[in-house]
Amino acid sequence: MSVLDRLAGLAGIEPFYHDIWGNRRETSDATKRALLRAMGLAAGTDDEAQASLRRLDEAGWRRLLPPVLVVEEGELPDLAVALPAGMDDAELAWWLTEESGFAHSGHARVGELPQSGTAVLEGLAFERRTLAARLPVRLPLGYHRLTVTVRLPGVGGTLEGTTTLILTPARCMTVDEAVPGGRTWGIGVQLYSLRSDEDWGVGDFSVLGRFAEVAARQGAGLVGLNPLHALFPADPNHIGPYSPSSRSFLNILYIDPAAVPELDSTPGAQEQIASPAFRQRLAAARTAALVDYPLAAGLKLPVLEALHATFRSLPADHPRRQSFEAFRQVMGEPLRRQAVFEALHEHFFRQDATRWMWRSWPPAYHNPASPEVEAFAAGKADRVAFYEYLQWEADRQLGTAAERGRAAGLSVGFYRDLAVAVHPGGGAAWADQGILVQGANVGAPPDQFNLKGQNWGLAPLSPIGLREAAYGPFVALLRSNMRHAGALRIDHVMALQHLFWIPEDGSDGAYVEYPFRDLLRIVALESRRNRCIVIGEDLGTVPEGFRPALERAGILSYRVLYFERSADGGFKAPAEYPQGALASVSTHDLAAFKGFWTGHDLDWRRRLDLYPTEAARDRDAWDRGVDRWRLLQALGREGLRPASYPTDEGDQPYRPELAAAVHAYMARTPSQIVMAQIEDALQEVEQANLPGTVDEHPNWRRRLSVTVEQLAEDPEVQRILAPLKDPAAGRGGTPTG
């Protein structure tokens, strides 16, 4: 094996992968060198690769303890201390501080500890001594800190090392633990799409609270949401929820200014809102068929600035000020860095639109800890505090919406969506440069839907950086997205095991391995701590053995009607769906059911010239006709084909009773959660996002055709959702809320 291959293997770059057709694709040397460079490991020449390999190889021997050790409850930690050889008479002392602060300690002579390995580095001998048997057998679940010191005999010096010991449960919080009977159903919605009689041109947390109450009254147990991640307030044209600035903070455009308490004591803002010019713009935003994000931002941000000025004048002992300070304390330095980033992004972008990416800023501002950044933050302290205030208010309003849903009867509550990665020009990539990789993007290899593969333009997490940080950023990410939620959907959950990286230099992509067992265990720990069910979006190319591993960890699979097929291409029977799953007819990236039946999504592809050939276009049209025939056959086998569809012929028109029948079909699956998309309940023909497009299709902008107030009284919605809430619709028990 070459030096380059050994280095790539140690860094987690997989030497090959099998594509969706079963073809083996080798990782080229050029790709290995490019990805290693993105990880901060020089490998342009064999000599550089040899030096990088030596550093990685030696790192584990030149420090006493690894940065982190993740252990499942009931296991004995495989903990060894790395020491120079020949220290048998040295005294080793250890202190284990539990997360609660309770401490254990002990000591031993090095020679008394079992030896578990040896190495020679540059002529110096090292060995590992096992310490696990000396530690307390029973520790509580959580994050503990172990410190070891070794006093050098005869020299008087001391070696010291520290590690984070994470003790985790075997499984996540389960649906059985959260819901009586272990089954429920819900409604999925894109928050921006919600309309109300009082919105400001985009769905907000207040209308979300009303929607949650409507869903609960229908008998739903949860409401599924698109990612609520922070975007770029200085540039409201950047709207993709799966391409965020940070996954740990919220999109401030979802704040309802009318629900901010400071409005009652800010006459200037009240006058601004009441002005004819403002009311005219507000009416235009509210009635538009598509979200006009710049218009919504232009309405909201000046009002929020005025409200923040009022907030700053409140006395320090005011409950709102105290709540804000408590939020800042909980969120800590990451909140401040995100706020500083947003102030800097606003500053440079407004000066020069070509400075949108932080890497295009003056070099002194690339480092969040630089004196220039500190000076900027001090000089713009009010603006930084404004962005902290917006995060706090967004969090408060989301919490209020969640409380409204639970009070109305949502047994699970909201399910939030965690995007797979962040934009490389965003706040997270700027603030956590040891964790977020620059020089490579996240994507997917070629498959039957994207023959050229996909480059999502997102920055991957560094597996090396994650371990060095004792997984702290990953833990914080989970906690942030489990706030005010009863369930968390992890987009492209295969990223816990490996992720497809594409070098920025144009080289072919390759899979990079992540510490799967560790990450899975941490997900289970945070799931239980936050009482949050976890759903893994496992669509696409799924590694062998991956789904069983998720099942063992209590993570629900994600099953979509369109993709659940038998060997002959027909739709699987409801009974063939797994119990440990969330089942749905469609998703945000696929055709709404009415659009699927009418071929509206295929019309879009033809209109936008997305087909490489006429033959591909004609094949899609033919296949859709076959799928309509197969779906009617599947419904017929279950006795669910509507009487208005007298045959299985796929050229029959769409009718509302067909949507009701398809949801009755899903209700008969044993899957513990069944979701209906609000677009399907409303019989919308358009989908939220058309993959492969950016501006050509109005992605992430469509608003629903009715308001939440009208939705509550819509008889067709009641008809389509009825099978999900009617126990008689399902075989073996229909989900109930």
TrEMBL record:
Any GO BP annotation: carbohydrate metabolic process
InterPro entries, per the entry: GH, Glyco_hydro_77, MalQ_N
Pfam families from the UniProt entry: Glyco_hydro_77 (PF02446), MalQ_N (PF21226)
Residue ranges of every copy of the MalQ N-terminal beta-sandwich domain listed in the record: 65-169
Keywords noted in UniProt: Carbohydrate metabolism, Glycosyltransferase, Plasmid, Transferase
Catalyzed reaction equations: Transfers a segment of a (1->4)-alpha-D-glucan to a new position in an acceptor, which may be glucose or a (1->4)-alpha-D-glucan
Transmembrane segments: none
GO molecular function annotation: 4-alpha-glucanotransferase activity
UniProt enzyme class: transferase
Gene3D superfamilies (alphabetical): Glycosidases
EC number annotated for this UniProt entry: 2.4.1.25
Keyword Glycosyltransferase attributed: yes
Family: Belongs to the disproportionating enzyme family.
Name of the protein described by the UniProt record: 4-alpha-glucanotransferase
Taxonomic source organism: Azospirillum thermophilum
